[in-house]
Amino acid sequence: MRAASVSDYRELARRRLPKIFFEYIDGGSYAEATLARNVADIEAIALRQRVMRDMSKLDMGVTSLGQSFAMPVGLAPVGMAGMYARRGETQAARAAAAAGLPFCLSAMGVCDAEEVAATGVPPWFQLYMLKDRGYMRALLGRVKALGCPVLVFTVDLPIPGARYRDVRSGFTGSSGLSGALNTAWDGATHPAWLWDVGLHGRPHSLGSVAGAVQGSRRVTDFLSWIARNFDRTVTWKDLDWVRETWDGPIVIKGVLDVADAKAAVKAGAQGLVVSNHGGRQLDGVRSSISALPKIADAVGSDLEVYMDGGIRSGLDVLKAMALGAKACFIGRAWAYALGAGGEAQVTKMLGTLRSELAVAMVLTGCANVREAGRELLDQEL
Question: Do residues 124 and 107 touch, judged by C-beta distance below 8 A?
Answer without folding.
Answer: no
